[in-house]
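Hi all, a correction to my earlier message: I attached the wrong file for Zinc finger protein Ci-ZF-144. Here's the right sequence:
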Amino acid sequence: MARGLAKEQAQQKSREKAAKAAGGKSQLKTRAAAFKITCPTCRTPLSDYKNFKEHFEAKHPKLPLPTEESLKPAA
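and the right structure:
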């Protein structure tokens, strides 16, 4: 019977650990806030216009470079 009690305690501890991990470890919101620009051609998220310009010149050299104003989302 002792193993039954230990099993229950282990399961409860596991559930508590999973609940803690689910609440505070996700960085999806932080990551989404960091990437402010999306490449209109390939939909790659980029952090700022400087990185966008480097990406665009390397990956899409035949296309004209969009201006910074045209990339900002409509407010």
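Sorry for the mix-up. The radius of gyration is 23 Å.
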